[in-house]
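Any chance you could type out a protein's amino acid sequence plus the matching backbone structure tokens because I've never seen that pairing?

——
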Amino acid sequence: MLTRILNLIFGSKNDREIKALRPVVEQINSLEPSLTPLSDHALTDKTQEFRKRLEKGEPLDDLLPEAFAVCREASRRKLNMRHFDVQLLGGMILHRGRIAEMKTGEGKTLVATLPLYLNALTGHGAHLVTVNDYLAKRDAQWMGALYHFLGLSVGVIQHDASFLYDPTYDAADKRLQYLRPCTRSEAYRADITYGTNNEFGFDYLRDNLIVNDIRQCVQRELNFAIVDEVDSILIDEARTPLIISGPTEDSTDLYYRINAIIPQLKPEQDYTIEEKTKTASLTEEGNARVEKLLGVENLYDLSNMTLVHHVIKALQAHSLYKRDVDYVVKDGEVIIVDEFTGRLMPGRRWSDGLHQAVEAKEGVKIANENQTLASVTFQNYFRMYKKLAGMTGTADTEASEFAKIYNLDVNVIPTNRPNIRKDYADVVYRTEREKFNAIVEEIKDCHQHGQPVLVGTISIEKSERLSGMLSRQGVKHHVLNAKYHEKEAEIIAQAGRKSAVTIATNMAGRGTDILLGGNPDFLFKRLLYQEEGIPEERRLAVFEEIKADCEKNKQEVVAAGGLHILGTERHESRRIDNQLRGRAGRQGDPGSSRFYLSLEDDLMRIFASERVSNLMLKLGMEEGVPIEHGMVTRAIENAQKKVEAHNFEIRKQLLEYDDVMNKQREVVYQHRRAILTGENLTDEIMGMMDSVVTSFVQACCPEEQYQEEWDYAALAESMHGQFGVDLAHGHPGGIEGLKDLGRDALVEELQQAVRQAYRRKEEEIGPDIMRQLEKIVLLQVIDHHWKDHLLGMDQLRDGIGLRGYGQKDPLIEYKREGFDMFSGMMERIKSDTLERLFKIQAVRQEAAPSPPPQMPPRLSLNRGEEPAASKTVKHQYDKVGRNDPCPCGSGKKFKKCHGA
């Protein structure tokens, strides 16, 4: 209460921060009269002028008023759009590295041009991160004219292609207008680069996993990024890390075998499920039944632990993962449905055998289980940027998480025009059937008097159910399951036309404006696509006709009450509900919203059913009669807050554990990058030799023992096995000659012997070839051990929670054991690298150089070929297994390489 009173008197913190920026807005506005008379050429020259001032040391912040004014003037000329004052405020918030919350229809796409232009002046690049390929391409094409006019280059990163904005390029595919194909590295070297969060993240992983030549790295330094729909990317998708994986050799037969017994198990009797956490567990009766069905004596014997894991995953697949809700089956594949957007995610797979269990359940071909080769969370990837900003319509409810995880403050930007949307209280029914009947009646009523309706559902299954009911009632409508982003945008753009009914799963179509009366630009493009013969001189007149029709349609829609938002269920996050509501009432338009609920909805059933049920019984609720009550609404909001807190804990825990991996990842990736950029790695190799020799002496000649007790035979054996150095015959005085040396002198003597052996190896093979081999072998050994280390860390993570039963903090134990494993890996990298280098011998015939490795697709299951040395090398490496990768870098197994 006290906080509210103080806010009324002094204004909130957000109000004060926005007020402090108003004078800068006035300064930008004051520059407009001096820029308007300038020629296009003179306005373009401002970019070079700004860059020269930066080179002389002028701070970037000092350029902000002039750069924003120039960008606004260029936008007015090239896009026929002039930034509002509130958009200038949004641009300043983004430049400061904060999140700008701006309501739907406030022009976030245009707002981003201001900070992108300013930060691109430094020459270090600026990224605009979107939620899908369509929006990245659309925004780059749309805003590209502005950037090109100001002398900046624009790149676009897509899932399977890369482009540069070029207004002179005439693409055969009109959807790629002005986008010229280019290499991925060219797109990243552009001043401004548009792309999706997945592509930026996967390119980072590929640059540090697959690339074996620095020239093949596509990304440059991570300088400045604006994340569009920042809540969707940094909150909703942050629970799932990006993973590049490769197939293991495990058989898939076990999945079919386990799947066959699951229908014979009875819920509650043989197993229990926990819907809140999506977990399943066997009861004692279930254990006995599974043992009998599988023909094993003890399911929890160490030799059967794999069976337990598979049974649990199969139970989850059958009981908790529903078709057309959590996934769809398309073309014989199980494709995950994004729980927050309703979009399909081809190429993504659940880990830990769950995806294979779902494939077995649906009777489709089971792909091999994968082993992680590289992974990173969105939290840790985006925290690598020197400066990060974001924009969305709904961030304030998650402001504390943005501050804690990303150190990002949220500023709410005022709307250009007052919001007059009416948000009605929730309506709650006893059963889902009653609820859907009421929804259909309301849609029919709106449809009949010309009011457009946007219906939000939480799953594909519910969308199709509602669609069937509307079809039986003869109501014409569109269904959006977000399978095709471009079609999705086209449909959602016309959701504001008179009597339109649009059903969207989890608000698919974010990023596309819903204009009352229809979007004339989309209608014009569709007409051009359908009727290619429209002459150039007639096109302007056709567009004006479409625009006039949309304006007339708008007046009728406004009279009917504007766009009506109808939610069929409350989402577990209030923010997702607010996103749906925010589609109505853009730029001062009229609109309304209402949510329909039932006691059978997942959120109500799992989190709020008892309190709400008791309340409804007290009020004497009858079948078919809804309830609208503030207590019900508060109970629902409390349930949503519980789920939000639970999901935050999941994301926080994921980040805490990934922070351990992130420190290790940074060390390995920095080491790998240093190898790629280093011309001469001899000093590093020599350092490895000294380190390994020192460790041998420490093991065989410990300080706490008398010199007479030192194990010289073991030391000689280690030196010969690792370096091929024979102390018995190759050293003056043999092993006996070493016994007169003190510990430090012994270390120095052995280090010199190893260095001399390496120089002889270098003379035998040739210095140039040796330099190549050092790089190839180092990269190969690092990649091999890092992959094994990731598998070990995954297994450690799976079981670390059990330490809690021993009164130990699992996270601290994970950090401690993870550090020990990492230290051991680094020692093995040194040892294996030296062993391979010392046991390589050259033969004299020449070999044709291998072609450069090709960049594999995202989530590739196959590694790229590695470049071979310019001379063929033969291995006399007695410890390499026949199925291990050949150390020469050919990418083949050892048994198939050189006839081994």
